[in-house]
């Protein structure tokens, strides 16, 4: 067991912390709520220049070739400043999808563009029944000679209103077994028949929407991975997404703890700092337990994924615990802050919203239940 | 012992429900609130209707033009209005200021201020909290200096709901800075149009405008707008506080959310063709919440009953507030879990379930465990005043 | 709504409180743990003399003819002193069973003896699968001409080691519909073939055991109520038992609250009473909320039963909440008491044990779930 | 970062598990404990075996005859011993007193006391708490008066586990009643056979005899049994406290209960022919507990890792204690709910499930959130020492 970081990892974390704190105060988060992508071009270029968008991209394709742990350190810091925008979907999920299943041409074309900051990607999987199960994928992929026609709808598409490339999970209706029916398609935004909905109003002010596919014709070169082989890739992306979301959530909770401890040290009532009342002090202590434990368990999941293990159990345990710990932390923070904490001008609510969003992103606790139970043979 | 309402009470409830059914617009979006201008218009219209029926002043003594209804009847009124999410009630004027004036006001003050409240024509707001005086309200620093016929008020009030829509404010100000902190405070009535008053909106985390910060700069308040005598303000303000904490609004809001979620669970297909209503986890959680809601409801009923017995239910009112506000947080959070991915969709998203109302409510009730005395303050009251434990702060 | 008591009810409550506090200090409870019935003959006689054993017995049969609310007041006080013995099973359940379903001869014979203190009764319903459902009743009732032969076993038989008369639920194997198969039988303890097990070691040190019926022959006069009509009676007894157990539990929790508040006022650490620390004060406040709310909801259920309503929903809500509130109250009490609270010599643990027992007596929260959910149309 | 054990650590774990498998009697009833005389004999036998293998002194430095194992190896040892519920470890002598003597003892004290602990031959107990000094331990009133070559000790110690089986006690006594409360305390070693010591059993709510009250009446303690200098006792006692709070025992006990309950849920039919393991409510609750248990386990690992980094994990140790002890309360209470009516059956009832162990554990762990510093004290440590909040008591 080693809970420490290598020197390189410390550099990455410190660099991320320094940059993100500077670029992303609460005012930035607020202004991005109205921005069409959630990230201005100049910031995105900077993320690319620092090697973050290409952090998981192999060096052969212009990336840094780093691993999930290093990415986790960046995401933890992004969580700590509630950094908005398409980074997660593009640099974590999009990159992982292409690395896992892309052919040489696809990698060469898309991964390079992710690394150089010219492409954002979004995973379009969930539908009306948002369960992360093969049977919930109803969007149809019908063969038309060599080509495919995609028909159906996708909901909860992260960065759906802005991404340049969609990774779309669709089911071949001629295949009866649900899992074997799933194929992934790379569908550029401007493909005819792709109808992108209005930006949704969401708890995290992010850029989700629904997308309709009206007999969208795509060629065989759009297939990501094998025909009928989409589910194993999706499952892996689900695990990566959940583990990385967990560490991002833990980063947010850590900041909430810092914010609350600071407030408890400074805010005075009855002639002393409110942190000097046990009711408040013990709430802060409970938050600290949640934060520390959520962080550890997230990194365990990430580390095991980074080692190439299946890690479904560790990921499930991490996400289930993050879901619980981070929402409870937010509640305790509000109770400690009193009225000021639920004003729009205070940053706390930004984190509260994000914790509620994180709880249902890349699996809520029900989506992860069976895998978590496998750890105790249930 | 009797765990049912009297025939007269049930008749009143029916009458009220009939009126609500006939009055509430069919397209009424109960996820809207008074921060919305259209909703506010509806609020004012319904308030005048309530006034016309005498229901705005249901519990006022008949001598002041009220209906002299019992606390239990008032509770029924509040419960149904809250459950049906009907706007129009007047917490600050009719329920808080008016009883205060009946006890502590002069005959002239009652004649001057009560009729307009009874007609639903004047909006009051409450100037208690200050930026540095929250739980420790008595440390408030807003000053009111005697200047002959008037007080000159300087200071800042915060978290003032509806200040931006209010005609008048009742506020606490320090009139004797030398006295111990509870003893130098006075209770003043002030026209919001008086020069020197600035209202700054505070937008809440749901993006709504309920709260305000009010600054008073050399605001002149005529002395006949002092209620209850100089330096008696703490006493004036707190004698009626308990009556604001029956808790029925909190628990009723929670019960309504449970009802909405139950309907959703019955009607929505879950995954794998199983209705959410048939899911073992949700059934267990619903059952416990239903039990807690029923227990909380009875606690609020008990408070109203004790009020009817002419006892001051301090302890029970605090219990009811803690239980009801916490329950609302539990049920709305449960609701978000029940909704799963849909839980993140806010009002206005086309894919949102239940019009995004659960998320709105989840935000709204975060404030409930804090306002009107934080739940920690309530627990202190229960422990110290209710159970004789020593002071802990 | 009326949360108050009539003058007569106040007399009953005050009388019960005075007598029970006197007769039943902690030392009495402890000594009764080793007593063969849990109640010495002289105390039982006194309960009879005071009219308590016959409180629910109609005046025609030598009882007081009072109602469930009055009995609830006594039980609340019994809970408050953790009064042991066969009172609940006999005076509440046995009496109710006979009153509900007994014929004139049965009432005349047994109710009189309950009232005069010469008979104790016990309900034998639960088996290996202890669910309160008709299908869980496997103990067989086979017709033999006019008579019946009972074969099977009963578990969780309260006061099984001491009761004089068992009310046994058995199923006619020739009837396929589970509910219609259930008949109740009155089986005196000494009936041949009734094999009573060793007294169990239970959390509450009560007198439960298992009973085996080996082709126990009983005559038609042993049938309580109609043949095949046992389930509706049992269901009513289940509701009465649950509501009355809830108020008994609330009484126990009330005493735990008093005990803890007193301790918090007196016990000093760091130079002041521990009740002057918010951590403790707020635990006590939470307990007060649990106690008051559990009490109210229990009386609502009892009052509605007393009015003759079905009250299944109100009972279920009351028992579910009592189960939660009273166990949480015990936990908070222990944390407030520190080490002293979990010693055998301290009374607190008596109540903790009893709360844990109460939680699974006359239905745990799962047994009551569907009825509780009916209140919200689920 | 590495979330797996080294090959050497895994090899040690295997070796330990092999030994446990070979050593633990096949009919071993893990619901028994040291209050049972037969079990105590087993404890002593296994302790000598552990001593023979050097495992009793696994983490002792080699210079004191230990194996110089890392905190992580010690954690593995504790985790497996706890999960398999193997008796025989020696908390008071080998894990608490010995490191204290290594830091604060004289060379002569080490030579005199360490070898018998290492051989597993001497049982120590701990005399800290007093009837009026629990959370406020530093207020202790047991006096040790200088009488030339000896101290004369008078006072009462309470909650002393195993005092009735102990040969020696290490205790805190006040040697300077004039000094401020933390500064007048000394740390003494005392033979339990010294005249004037009376041990009174305290039976716990499970009916077991673990705790005792010890009275000291003019008990004479030779001065060479003073550890760390006069009036230095508070410092001596607390420097090592953090190392007693890694929390792995707590969370491991909880994990074992979860494992037992999971096996029960898999094998037992529930009602209506549905296995408990297939019930939605139980699946949801199991999943959350499993996640919390994993999180708590990692927190304990982190404490051991920090110890290996030569840092003092004060804050993390307190977190681990709170989380592990609370988890054990949650899982045992969940277990009773899972068992339903069977949950009320104690060890020894023929109808009991899992030998009544869940109920025993439910009782036992009520003490855990209180002993070794109540969880409230731990939260104070986290808040004050860990997060810089002001003192609150």
Radius of gyration of chain B: 22 Å
Q: What's the alpha carbon Rg of chain A, rounded to whole Å?
A: 21 Å
Q: Quick one: how many beta strands of chain A?
A: 10
Name of the level-1 CATH class of the largest domain in chain A: Mainly Alpha
Instruction: Give the rounded overall mean pLDDT of chain B.
Output: 94
Individual helix count of chain B: 11
- Helix- and strand-based class of chain A? alpha+beta
Write down the overall geometry of chain B: globular
Q: What CATH architecture of the largest domain in chain A would you give?
A: Up-down Bundle
Quick recap of the structure?
The complex is a heterotetramer, with two copies of chain A (378 residues) and two copies of chain B (393 residues). By secondary structure, chain A is an alpha+beta fold.
Please explain how this structure is put together.
The complex is a heterotetramer, with two copies of chain A (378 residues) and two copies of chain B (393 residues). Chain A has helices at residues 7-23, 26-32, 41-49, 68-81, 87-101, 104-115, 230-266, 278-306, 312-337, 348-359, 369-374; strands at residues 121-124, 140-144, 147-157, 165-171, 182-188, 194-196, 209-218, 223-224, 268-269, 272-273. Chain A has 378 residues and is an alpha+beta fold. Chain A has three domains: 7-119, Acyl-CoA dehydrogenase/oxidase, N-terminal domain (Butyryl-Coa Dehydrogenase, subunit A, domain 1, Orthogonal Bundle); 123-228, Beta Barrel (Butyryl-CoA Dehydrogenase, subunit A, domain 2); 232-375, Butyryl-CoA Dehydrogenase, subunit A, domain 3 (Up-down Bundle). In chain A, strand 2 (140-144) and strand 3 form a beta hairpin. In chain A, helix 7 packs antiparallel against helix 10 and helix 8 packs antiparallel against helix 9 (312-337). The longest helix of chain A is centred in the middle third of the chain and has 37 residues, at 230-266. In chain B, 55% of the residues are buried. The mean pLDDT of chain B is 94. In chain B, a hairpin with a 5-residue loop joins strand 6 (197-203) and strand 7. The two termini of chain B are 38 Å apart. Chain B has eleven helices and eight strands. In chain B, the strands form two sheets. In chain B, strands 1-4-5-8 form a four-stranded mixed β-sheet. Chain B is of the alpha+beta class. Chain B folds into three domains: 7-89, Butyryl-Coa Dehydrogenase, subunit A, domain 1; 125-231, Butyryl-CoA Dehydrogenase, subunit A, domain 2 (Beta Barrel); 246-386, Butyryl-CoA Dehydrogenase, subunit A, domain 3 (Up-down Bundle), CATH 1.20.140.10. Chains in contact: A-B, A-C, A-D, B-C, B-D, C-D. At the A-C interface, helix 8 of A face helix 8 of C.
């Amino acid at each position: 067991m080693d809970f420490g970081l290598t020197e390189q990892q410390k550099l990455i974390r410190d660099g991320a912390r320094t940059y993100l704190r500077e670029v992303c105060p609460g005012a930035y988060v607020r202004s991005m709520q109205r921005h069409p992508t959630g990230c201005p071009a100049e910031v995105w270029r900077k993320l690319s220049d620092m090697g973050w968008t290409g952090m998981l991209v192999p060096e052969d394709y212009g990336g840094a070739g780093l691993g999930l742990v290093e990415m986790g350190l960046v995401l933890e810091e992004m969580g700590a400043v509630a950094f908005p925008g398409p980074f997660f979907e593009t640099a974590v999920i999009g990159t992982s999808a292409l690395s896992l299943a892309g052919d040489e041409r696809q990698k060469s074309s898309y991964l390079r563009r992710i690394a150089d900051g010219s492409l954002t990607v979004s995973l379009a999987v969930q539908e009306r029944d948002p369960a992360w199960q093969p049977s919930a994928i109803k969007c149809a992929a019908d063969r038309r000679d060599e080509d495919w026609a995609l028909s159906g709808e996708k909901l909860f598409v992260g960065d759906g209103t802005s991404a340049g490339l969609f990774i779309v999970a669709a089911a071949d209706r001629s295949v009866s077994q649900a899992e074997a029916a799933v194929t992934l398609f790379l569908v550029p935004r401007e493909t005819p028949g792709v109808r992108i909905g209005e930006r949704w109003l969401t708890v995290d002010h992010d850029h989700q929407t629904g997308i309709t596919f009206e007999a969208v014709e795509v060629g065989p070169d759009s297939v990501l991975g094998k025909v009928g082989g989409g589910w194993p890739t999706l499952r892996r992306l689900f695990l990566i997404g959940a583990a990385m979301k967990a560490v991002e959530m833990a980063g947010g909770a850590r900041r909430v703890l810092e914010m609350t401890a600071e407030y408890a040290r400074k805010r005075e009532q009855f002639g002393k700092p409110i942190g000097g009342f046990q009711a408040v002090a013990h709430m802060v202590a409970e938050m600290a337990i949640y934060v520390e434990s959520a962080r550890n368990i997230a990194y365990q999941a990430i580390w095991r994924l980074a080692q190439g293990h299946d890690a479904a159990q560790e990921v499930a345990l991490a996400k289930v615990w993050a879901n619980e710990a981070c929402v409870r932390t937010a509640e305790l923070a509000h109770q400690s802050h009193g009225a000021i904490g639920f004003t729009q001008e205070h940053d706390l609510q930004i984190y509260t919203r994000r914790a509620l969003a994180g709880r249902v992103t890349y699996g809520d606790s029900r989506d992860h239940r069976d895998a978590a139970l496998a750890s105790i043979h249930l | 012992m009797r765990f049912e309402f009297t025939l007269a009470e049930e008749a009143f409830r029916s009458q009220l429900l009939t009126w609500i059914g006939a009055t509430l617009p069919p397209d009424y979006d109960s996820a809207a609130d008074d921060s919305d201008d259209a909703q506010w218009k509806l609020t004012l219209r319904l308030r005048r209707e309530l006034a016309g029926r005498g229901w705005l002043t249901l519990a006022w003594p008949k001598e002041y033009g009220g209906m002299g209804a019992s606390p239990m009847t008032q509770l029924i009124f509040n419960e149904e209005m809250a459950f049906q999410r009907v706007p129009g009630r007047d917490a600050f004027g009719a329920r808080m200021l008016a009883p205060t004036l009946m006890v502590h006001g002069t005959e002239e003050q009652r004649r001057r201020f009560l009729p307009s409240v009874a007609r639903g024509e004047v909006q009051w707001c409450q100037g208690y909290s200050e930026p540095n005086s929250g739980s420790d309200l008595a440390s408030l620093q807003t000053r009111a200096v005697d200047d002959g016929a008037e007080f000159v008020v300087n200071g800042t009030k915060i978290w003032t709901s509806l200040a931006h829509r209010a005609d008048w404010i009742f506020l606490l100000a320090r009139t004797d800075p030398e006295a111990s902190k509870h003893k130098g405070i006075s209770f003043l009535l002030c026209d919001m149009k008086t020069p020197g008053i600035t209202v700054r909106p505070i937008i809440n985390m749901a993006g709504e405008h309920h709260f305000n910060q009010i600054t008073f700069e050399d605001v002149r308040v005529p002395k006949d707008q002092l209620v209850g005598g100089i330096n008696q303000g703490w006493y004036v303000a707190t004698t009626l506080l308990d009556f604001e904490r029956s808790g029925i609004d909190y628990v009723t809001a929670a019960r309504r959310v449970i009802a909405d979620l139950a309907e959703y669970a019955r009607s929505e297909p879950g995954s794998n063709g199983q209705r959410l209503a048939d899911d073992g986890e949700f059934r267990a959680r619903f059952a416990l919440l239903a039990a807690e809601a029923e227990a909380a409801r009875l606690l609020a009923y008990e408070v109203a009953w004790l009020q009817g017995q002419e006892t001051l239910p301090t302890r029970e009112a605090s219990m009811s507030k803690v239980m009801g506000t916490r329950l609302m947080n539990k049920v709305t959070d449960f609701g978000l879990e029940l909704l799963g991915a849909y839980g993140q969709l806010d009002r206005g998203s086309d894919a949102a379930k239940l019009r995004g109302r659960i998320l709105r409510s989840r935000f709204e009730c975060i404030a409930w465990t804090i306002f009107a005395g934080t739940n920690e303050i309530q627990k202190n009251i229960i422990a110290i005043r209710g159970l004789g434990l020593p002071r802990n702060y």
